[in-house]
Amino acid sequence: MRLASDNSTETSEKETPVKRINDMAEVERFTDQELREKKILTIDSTSKQVLNIFRGLRTKLHKKSRGRNYVCMVSSLVSNGGASYVVNNLAAAIALDKLKSALVIDCNLYAPSAQNLMMTKVNHGLTDYLSSDDMRIEDIVYATGIPRVRAIPVGDNCEGGAELFSNKRMRQFIDEVRSRYDDRFIIIDAPSIGEFTAEAQILSDLSDFSLLVVPFGKVTTQQVVSSVNAISPEKLAGTVFNN
User: Fold this and answer.
1) Could you report the per-residue pLDDT of 126-149, keeping only the tens digit for each?
2) How confident is the model over 157-167, as a mean pLDDT?
3) What is the rounded CA–CA span in Å between residue 54 and residue 96?
């Protein structure tokens, strides 16, 4: 069963944002144990420190966006540096607010992870959409096991990431998902900026903000400096140290 939650018919002009979000179709949710195993926070998380860290990160980004919804790219300095962990938990923290929802877009062609958020079979993803003029956005948006969080998986056509992300259809896609709902915040899970610099830079240019994840003890000072310099200063929202 495929669930697409971005169908434009789901909201009438008379519906309020609160009603629309409350009416979002949800599939079976992850249990608390499953969320712990996936290292995804909840309002009842036993680690209040982690919960508060992501709440703080959410608040800083909201202030930077002046309350408007935004597109935020997250990239680690090296592969397996924790970008997906930050993406998933930032999305979960945003969705703790029942007036907001989050959309995770998996753009990491080399280590995709969005499928870990889903409890249903995935048929199509972002690269399929970018390669087909006949596919609609609602064909690639899936419910997750986290309330008010949606996800777009990578898809099957993963050749030529830099070329896919730099084409006109990708920019149109980002513009549309950003403008479709003003209460939805979009988080892009990007490839490692230290290893796939071109793709990360393209995705950063398409985003409002960029967060760089620095894995503790796994990178040098020069790697940090090089990665920061690869992002336009006006796009860089900050760095997140992951231990």
Assistant:
1) 999 998 888 999 999 999 999 999
2) 82
3) 11
| CATH dotted code for 27-242 | 3.40.50.300
CA 15 to chain centroid:
26
| 3-class SS string, the chain | CCCCCCCHHHCCCCCCHHHHHHCCCCCCCCCHHHHHHCCCCCCCCCCHHHHHHHHHHHHHHHHHCCCCCCEEEEEECCCCCCHHHHHHHHHHHHHCCCCCEEEEEECCCCCCCHHHHCCCCCCCCHHHHHCCCCCCHHHCCEECCCCCEEEECCCCCCCCHHHHHCCHHHHHHHHHHHHHCCCEEEEEECCCCCCCHHHHHHHHHHCCEEEEEEECCCCCHHHHHHHHHCCCCCCEEEEEEEC
Look up residue 98 and give its two tokens: 């029942």
Domains of the chain, by residue range, sit at 27-242
Q: What Cα–Cα distance (Å) separates residue 197 from each residue in 76, 203, 227?
A: 11, 10, 8
> The pTM is what?
0.88
With contact defined as beta carbons under 8 Å apart, do 104 and 187 qualify? yes
- 1-25 residue pLDDT tens: 223 334 433 344 445 555 555 555 5
Q: Are 137 and 6 in contact (CB under 8 A)?
A: yes
